[in-house]
Amino acid sequence: MNMKPEVNAARLLASVADFAAIGATPAGGVNRQALGVEDRVARRLLAERALARGFSVFQDEIANLFIRREGRDASLPPLLIGSHLDSQPNGGRFDGALGTLSAFEALEALADAGVETDHAVEVVAFTNEEGSRYAPGCMGSMAFAGAGALAEWQSIHATDGPVLAEELATTLAALPEAKMRPIGHAISAFVELHIEQGPILEREDVPIGVVTAVQGTKWLEVTFSGKAAHAGTTPLEFRKDPMSAAVAAIASLQSAIMPTDPDARLTVGRIAAEPGSINVIPNSVTFTVDIRHPDAATLAVIERHVRDECEAASARWDCELAIKQRVDMPPGRFAQSIVEAIENSCERLGLKSRRMVSGAFHDALFVNRVAPTAMIFVPCRDGISHNEAEFVADHHMISGARVLLDVVERLGAN
Ligand code: HGY
Ligand code: MN
Ligand code: MN
Ligand code: MN
């Protein structure tokens, strides 16, 4: 007899707490960077819980982890839900994990109620969404959508050293119970639940965001190279100082359209000098630039401005310039059918919702290229994320999971 599946709130909250303990940091966040030890512990815990429920577990060659609950008709492509388990080095307990664990809760709720969906339902934890340890981000979902470059990525070194190929092999080997499957199988649709990571929902007191699009992102890695020399004996006019060039370039970056365009975002997140000694004029300085905008043409204008300013600084300070593009994610618009399915579920559950564009990139941005996709956002306190203070109230987690479960029931039916 089919009961109405219900989210088991206590189980979901306990699950979020269990995963928050994996890579937990003293300040209450998580450091569970892609393909590292803690990432492997989290994957194992999820896989073990899945096997214990009789679900099947798969991974592909970029270690995307899939958990499958069979449907009535195996000839139908599965409905895919989920997010990621990897985090920023100073990550919050909810970014990625909440979406993945809410998706797993939906599978458990269906199983508890004995509800059979026509489509199989699969939960995915995509590999390396964050891109902080290994750039680019969204490696797993990019590969799943046929936009990856796995062969090229294998030789990338992590910010803490290990080459991706080794960490990937270790991660795959750590889950022998997971059956291997080719990258990029057909799916009927994808729905990703995620924290908003911004302040809008909380400020408007709206419990659910229905994400209609994701803005574009570009990551540049800028290196100025000069000549290492003695800090004390080298007069200014004899210097080829890459730090002066970098500081001048960075100071000028915000001068383009940022002040007049409220949608433009530019962040210099990392800077490093080689050899990095207090009394040596650096040999080279490398910094990262993260540029975002909802409009692809404007994103290109901002990138051009960044390159122009770096070229000007390179000439002014007589230093070599090299710019590597690490990420180029065009903006993406989600499927109207999935957006409306999420809105209809909110209505059925009596939950207020509002449409919005995501400022953060997500795995859904890439899966959107191969299947109808959209996202569910829940509010996070003060809009804080990529920060150990990230926080989501219990009732918002539960509402989000209830919407996801209702959407799964509807989309799982043929
Ligand atoms: O950077 C991003 O937008 C994502 O949250 N990793
Ligand atoms: Mn995320
Ligand atoms: Mn993130
Ligand atoms: Mn994401």
Automatic annotation (TrEMBL):
What InterPro entries does the record tag this protein with?
A: Amidase_Cbmase, Bact_exopeptidase_dim_dom, Peptidase_M20, Peptidase_M20_dimer
Peptidase M20 dimerisation domain: residues covered: 213-317
SUPFAM superfamilies in UniProt: Bacterial exopeptidase dimerisation domain, Zn-dependent exopeptidases
Q: Is the keyword Hydrolase assigned to this protein?
A: yes
Statement: the UniProt record of this protein carries the keyword Hydrolase: yes
Molecular function terms, GO-annotated: hydrolase activity
Signal peptide range in chain numbering: none
Which keywords does this chain's UniProt record carry? Hydrolase
Family statement drawn from the similarity comment of this UniProt entry: Belongs to the peptidase M20 family.
Q: Which NCBIfam families match?
A: hydantase (TIGR01879), PRK09290.1-5 (NF006771)
Name by which UniProt lists this protein: Zn-dependent hydrolase
